[in-house]
Amino acid sequence: MPLFSLILAVFVIGAFVLLGRLKNAGGQSGSRSDSAVAIPAEYEVERRTLGIGAIAVIGMFAVEFVVRGFLLNLSDTVDWWRYATPLLTAVLILAVVLFQIASRKTVAPARPVVATARRTWLSFGPRAGIIGAGALVAAFVATTLAAGAASSPDDRGRYIYIELVAANTTIDPLRFWFYGWAYGIPVIICVGALAIMAWLTLRANALRPFRMPENTGMERRARGQIAAGITSISTAAMLLALGGAFRLISNARGPWGLTINGDPHSEPYEMTWHYANLAAAAGWVAPLLEVAAFVLLLISARRLLRAHPRRQPSENAVIAEVV
Question: How confident is the model at residue 69 (pLDDT cuts 50, 70, 90)?
Answer without folding.
Answer: confident
